[in-house]
Amino acid sequence: VRLDLALVGFGNVARRFVALLGERAARLEAECGITTRIVAVRTRRHGTAVDPDGIDPSTLLTAPGSLDGLSAVRAPASTADLIRQLAADSELRRLVVVETTVLDVRAGQPAVDHIRAALSSGAHAITANKGPVAFAYRELDQLARSRGVLFRFESAVMDGIPIFNLVRETLPAVRVIAFRGVVNATTNHILSAMEAGEPFERALARMQAEGIAEADPSLDVDGWDAAAKVAALGNVLMDARTTPPRIARRGIAGLDASMVQRARGRGRRVKLVASGSMAGGRFEGRVEPEELAGEDPLARLDGTSNALLLETDLPGRLLVTELDADLTQTAYGLVSDLVAVRRRL
Ligand SMILES: NC(=O)c1ccc[n+]([C@@H]2O[C@H](COP(=O)([O-])OP(=O)(O)OC[C@H]3O[C@@H](n4cnc5c(N)ncnc54)[C@H](OP(=O)(O)O)[C@@H]3O)[C@@H](O)[C@H]2O)c1
Fold this sequence. Notes:
alpha/beta, six-stranded mixed beta sheet, 13 helices, 40% helix, binds NADP nicotinamide-adenine-dinucleotide phosphate
């Protein structure tokens, strides 16, 4: 089956995803019955390419500057209109919108609108962006069900580690009661550097120079990225009906390096811990630096490693760990979402 892809956002994740589709094309076809064709690519500042007959992936990956020159047809100014136009094209019967724009922590926009436009016009939608699940999971999930299409977001939390699929596919009838994890790589790196005595500001500047932290690192160091992950996990796994601003949040910017170093000296470690639980029918989500005992499984994580401890009512406590994540894991999460779409057809 051929899936027609409309890529909204074409940065690090989407580029690795397109490359991975090429690298794994033979296996995807033989084992999953999937071939793909890219029919549109939309960016914020690098133009738009639209061609219902398909855009060559290697031309796309090597195009210098704007993508406009790769277009066979004129694209509407609004991304939602572009999605609706593609979905209305009878030649593109299996359209999948692949949303990888940047996280907006105030309202999850415009990603929520992109997903809404896709689902409401009968296209499937997959995303690596936490915004849609953190802000509008319930609405988008219901919309997808009512239109008979799929909405999937496996790489939004813990990259390619199948945390949502783990619960959905392999833990039927199980209730998740609480979770607790370390889910942000940048703060993990900075805290490790602070343990070695480096002050916060210097550790952060070095992470930026090494390309680990973003140019604007506030999403990470102020705990917003982790809060969006808490909201996403809560909404999907526990029907929390929450949003990132409602997660109690403290980042690592005010932390004193000598405190972090002293904890290390006592065999303990300071980590930015993200957690969620149900109390009296209400979801309580939290992000804050915590000093952990050395034997706590979350204390052993370094760098880009993530872990999430799920507390459940039947199989008890499950620890899911991702060691040394990189872009390939994130791109793989999107590929697994594509396979989920194929299985649904
Ligand atoms: N990087 C990771 O390891 C990782 C892991 C898990 C999840 N994620 C999530 O995946 C998403 C993408 O990450 P990334 O690293 O690929 O980001 P990125 O490199 O900054 O790329 C973002 C892309 O989105 C485009 N864009 C931004 N706003 C847009 C808009 N309003 N309409 C259309 N396009 C828009 C940008 O266009 P321009 O090219 O014109 O700027 C760019 O192509 C983010 O939500 C991130 O949180 C990333």
